[in-house]
């Protein structure tokens, strides 16, 4: 059932909450501003007060926002999207930095110093790989909890001198639960007296049998610090990606997921998006979570303005009217009115949820009682 808080209802009738509470009191209802009313009760009150009611349901707003895939469309191969996970200090950040440097043009302005939530690297075969450079676990789990399965492959970094540790196991479990194939990167092999075989044996306990032990999971020995065998890792990713046969329809209505977003002093709302299907273009009207806007600029991971971004491409966009959340979906729509309708509906839902949470009874609890 649809629920609305007294506060929200008052706001939509352009009246003060206290006045609405007084009206309700006249009808024998003692409520506070953050109390929730069901849709039928709300409708009666609204009509009593001489307003007309137009009920909008979730499906009225959300259905068809992202069009069904066209089964006859030509699908082109797309780069894999990779997340790096592993125990703290095993070298996730070092590995991401080392991989990124394989791709930075010498002396390029901007480039490597600025943090970016996702970037692409060229594998030795010339094909691209997209890396999500977000605090691995948090991003992966929160995105997944919100139904955004953007990761195609998980790299699990295990430091050869430390072996399998609690967050290694956690990462393995996340990858398995998500049904995402993993590649084991045994890191820090530059250190004296380390034994990668010990790591491989330990992994067996967690039902991860690596290729060099006769299993199916690819394992690569690397040193992020000394930049050893990074090409080997990129090749392993490419091999895995080929097995997955990742494709997308670059010509369809675009959609994808927010990787990160923030408010920038000079540029306003800046969001890093990962395009999943279609091609996002400058000037497109987008709904992103509870925000919307016209894409004013697209900036790639090298800091260059581009006109469009196709499948698996991470891209920064400017032009949103607010800051969305990581894991939010974006969709391109035809008209501003549609974008505004969806964004406002979602913003209202969010407010209602927040209000219900602070009023002591959660929306879920209320629903369970109804
Ligand atoms: P994270 O917590 O997984 O992101 O790990 P970091 O990338 O921050 O690395 C933790 C520490 O391990 C840092 O002091 C790195 O310099 C060091 N480290 C990372 N990779 C290597 C490596 O391949 N070899 C050696 N010897 N040290 C490394
Ligand atoms: Mg780190």
From TrEMBL:
Gene: infB
Function: One of the essential components for the initiation of protein synthesis. Protects formylmethionyl-tRNA from spontaneous hydrolysis and promotes its binding to the 30S ribosomal subunits. Also involved in the hydrolysis of GTP during the formation of the 70S ribosomal complex.
Cellular localization per UniProt: Cytoplasm
Organism, as annotated: Parvularcula marina
Residues binding GTP: 86-93, 133-137, 187-190
Coiled-coil positions: none
UniProt-recorded name of the protein: Translation initiation factor IF-2
Annotated ranges, domain Tr-type G: 77-247
Family: Belongs to the TRAFAC class translation factor GTPase superfamily. Classic translation factor GTPase family. IF-2 subfamily.
Range of residues in the leader sequence: none
Recorded superkingdom: Bacteria
């Amino acid at each position: 059932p649809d629920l609305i808080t007294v506060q929200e209802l008052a706001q939509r009738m352009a009246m003060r909450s206290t006045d609405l509470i007084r009206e309700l009191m006249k009808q024998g209802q003692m409520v506070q501003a953050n109390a929730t009313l069901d849709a039928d009760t709300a409708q009666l009150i609204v009509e009593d007060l001489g307003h007309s009611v137009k009920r909008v349901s979730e499906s009225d707003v959300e259905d068809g926002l992202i069009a069904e895939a066209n089964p006859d469309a030509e699908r082109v191969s797309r780069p894999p999207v990779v997340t790096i996970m592993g125990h703290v200090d095993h070298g996730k950040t070092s590995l991401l930095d080392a991989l990124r440097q394989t791709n930075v043009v010498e002396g390029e302005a901007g480039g490597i110093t600025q943090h970016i939530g996702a970037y692409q690297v060229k594998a030795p075969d010339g094909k691209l790989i997209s890396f999500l450079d977000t605090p691995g676990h948090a991003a992966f789990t929160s995105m997944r909890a919100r139904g955004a399965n953007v990761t195609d492959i998980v790299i699990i970094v295990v430091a050869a001198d430390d072996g399998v540790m609690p967050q290694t196991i956690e990462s393995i479990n996340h990858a398995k639960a998500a049904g995402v194939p993993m590649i084991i990167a045994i890191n820090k092999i530059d250190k004296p007296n380390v034994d990668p075989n010990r790591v491989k044996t330990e992994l067996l306990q967690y039902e991860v049998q690596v290729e060099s032990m006769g299993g199916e999971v690819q394992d690569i020995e690397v040193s992020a610090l000394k930049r050893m065998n990074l090409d080997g890792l990129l090749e392993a990713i490419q091999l895995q990606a080929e097995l997955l046969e990742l494709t997308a329809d670059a010509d369809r209505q675009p959609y994808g997921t927010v990787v990160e977003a923030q408010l920038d002093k000079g540029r306003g709302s800046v969001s890093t998006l990962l395009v999943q299907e279609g091609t996002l273009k400058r000037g497109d009207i987008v709904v992103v979570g509870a925000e919307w806007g016209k894409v004013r600029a697209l900036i790639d991971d090298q800091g260059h303005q581009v006109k469009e971004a196709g499948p698996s491409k991470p891209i920064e966009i400017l032009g949103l009217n607010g800051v969305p959340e990581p894991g939010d979906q974006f969709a391109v729509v035809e008209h501003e009115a549609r974008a505004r309708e969806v964004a406002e509906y979602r913003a209202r839902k969010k407010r209602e949820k927040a209000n219900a949470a602070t009023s002591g009874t959660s929306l879920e609890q209320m629903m369970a009682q109804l």
